[in-house]
């Protein structure tokens, strides 16, 4: 990785060997207002990234300057002797103007950690005073990606970051697990209904969680997202099961009650997707999927919470083009596509046809998704005609 200053212009070499050119006056203004990330001790050849940019660390790389205020995701991935890369390990931070953040390399865990020194404030003050001398080893933030990153995270506030990131601060592709008693497993306690040995095989086929080992997340390592209510409550009366399945307004209302404002849901949606998109966090993708699966299946919620759903459709328009390749192919086996289709139907029915059309056009252009017969009546909902025999 190199930072080249020539002809009073900044050039940043990305992994694709492309370069960023910037007007000198703009660069000076961004340098004066932007945040600074200083990293120490990271081995040469380590993969490093911030937001949507990824680099390979060279001998003279010590961090990033000109970081725009707002939320940013930083990660590293160590390289093995044969070029194999370890899973990404990172952290999320809400940068303020002129803020200096210092991280150091943990050689045992092979990840970035907060600086372990007696007086961190003194070190930051020293870095600030000598920033002009450090500039040559600090890479400029690649502003070619700043608009795209703002589209994905523009609603996220510092309070949302503090609430959702793991207590320990580090975000991994998979959370750490530890063994636990069966009663403490995340799926709940042991089954309360006894079943005969004859039905044991059927139970295992229907409930795959019985095959899982007794594990639970290590405290402080998992993202702290809001609990997503079930579309059909476990204690629902038989007469209410169909109602909840057809329109889960009660679950959506319960979800929104967990936030101080409805915008809190939009913030968490964006942050969870950023954890997945940049940090490859499996738990964050699962949380995002649960939210989509809930919000997409209520026409009443669209009518009742119009502003929230307008914002949600805009969020999805920017997120869906970044889906993993296996989720980009439309079809009956793609649950994301099916949920988005159901959401579009409910947006139209709930009075948000403009938002639905805008999202539809975006997905047709970016993903090639088509929604033929979107507003046609579902054959399963049509009356069944039975021909009676003649008298």
Automatic annotation (TrEMBL):
InterPro entries in UniProt: AAR2 (IPR007946), AAR2_C (IPR033648), AAR2_C_sf (IPR038514), Aar2_N (IPR033647), AAR2_N_sf (IPR038516)
Pfam families: AAR2, AAR2_1st
Gene3D superfamilies named in the record: 2.60.34.20, Aar2, C-terminal domain-like
AAR2 C-terminal domain sequence ranges: 225-372
CDD domains: Aar2_C, Aar2_N
Boundaries of every AAR2 N-terminal domain copy: 34-166
Recorded family membership: Belongs to the AAR2 family.
Name of the protein described by the UniProt record: Protein AAR2 homolog
Species assigned in the record: Drosophila melanogaster (Fruit fly)
